[in-house]
Amino acid sequence: MPELPEVETVRRQLHERIAGKTIREVSIFKTGRETPVGSKFVQAIVGRRLKGVERRAKVLVFRFDDGGVMLGHLKMTGKFVFVTGSRRVTPEKHDRIFFVFDSKTHLVWSDVRKFGYLKIATAGETLAALSHYGPEPLEAKPAELAERLKRKSSRTIKAALLDQTVIAGIGNIYADEALFRAGIRPTRKVNKLTDDERLLLAKHIKKVLAQSLAQKGTSSNDYIDTEGEKGGFQNFLRVYGREGDPCRTCKNSIKKILTAQRGTHYCVSCQK
Length: 272
Ligand SMILES: [Zn+2]
Known about the structure:
It is built from 8 helices and 11 strands. With 272 residues, it is α+β, with helices and mostly antiparallel strands. Zinc ion (ZN) is lined by residues 247, 249-250, 252, 267, 269-270.
């Protein structure tokens, strides 16, 4: 699933290409994951000018000139890709919605797993959708993130990192990577971590997210950006997706276990 660095990469690229442009036409190839559904979605959105694209946690927030908002969530496999006009005539299998902006800017929304969504939202709905998230880790200070990591202290640190109300935007990849870099086992209970460990982890969360963002994210699964390009951070992963491979620090095999209902990768000797 795209996490903060991947969604932020998509946001930056979308903003650069479509901010200030008006949506001229919309074609729906596959309906059901847009709100309102079908022709009502088209009617609600055509003719509106996009002010810009923002992000909160893993949610894309398309803001229109008139104050309206469209929320977009990639979930597992949702993709926005800039394409040529011919894709409208011959859509690919998982293409769902085709947008035509000014200056022949064509954008397709596709989704293999169909968990992603686009939703035209009222101010109230937008507030409700975005209000429960924890702080943005790239913006918050390490001490603030460390403090957040004390919440609900009887569960594992892996579960805490995946909880979007604790810190926004972290998923399985960056939870595992930050824990490795901080030398902390994912199965440790939150209340067994020292203040120093929490602070160290907070610093590594910020660092690993920033490093991945600089590489335009991780494409160890099927993530691609709006230009159809892969990110580069999969080449820098230390534990995620490396089950059975030698640890880059100590050469022991990376282990994969189930924690917080998620596949969790760690090194037995580097993480205490
Ligand atoms: Zn190791």
